[in-house]
Design brief:
CATH class: Alpha Beta
Strand content: 15-25%
CATH architecture: 3-Layer(aba) Sandwich
Strand order of the largest sheet: 4-3-5-2-1-6-10-11-9
Oligomer: single chain
CATH topology: Carbamate kinase
Order of helices and strands: EHEHHEEHEHEEEEHHEHE
Length: 240
Amino acid sequence: MAESTFKRVLLKLSGEALSGVQEQGLNRDLTDQLALALNEAGQLGVELAVVVGGGNIFRGFSASSQGVERELADYMGMLATVINGLALEDAIRRKGGQARVLSAIPMVEVVETYSIRRARNHLHKGRIVILVGGTGKPYFSTDTAAALRAVELDADALLKATKVDGVYDADPLHRPDAKRFPRVSYMEMIKRRLRVMDTTAVVLCMENEVPIIVFNMTERGNLKRILLGEEVGTLVKEEL
């Protein structure tokens, strides 16, 4: 069997990746498809960590804009990511893989508490590590949590899963003439306000030289193709 060109990667999944077109809640068929793709990635020999969002269940930022106290809204959003993480862990196990959920917010009756050492230990043992609870602090997005965990775990790359096939100069879902970038530097992404990831996350990756690959996760096989070294989506790294 072919082997991955990466030793360890961190995959950022939005909550919507688990809900599909229904946008809210959990879609079991879609979650099972994701689990199969993640298990297949593990079979390539790559150590895989996943940061999952919670937007399909609760959006802290939206709640805050409607009058909910910002800190409380953010914590509610973090708890939503725990639900998604548990659903993904269940699907991975049902499909024959091994996974562990680690939370930045301690809840020992439900999941393990995140630590760098514990996460690395599970990765070394071939388990998919699902990281939930964001950073454990309000005011930080799950994109920033993904960048932070990628740095902490010495990931070779941060894979940002989206519904489009890379970084564009405008929203391709609303602008059919939008231009896709096969490669873009961190600074260009920041200066041009290419909002695929928030600025804090991009800066964190830039300062620690973690490449970002933005790709379409809804197209089957894309994750495997990236891990095998194919050019898929948009590569974000130092000045090109």
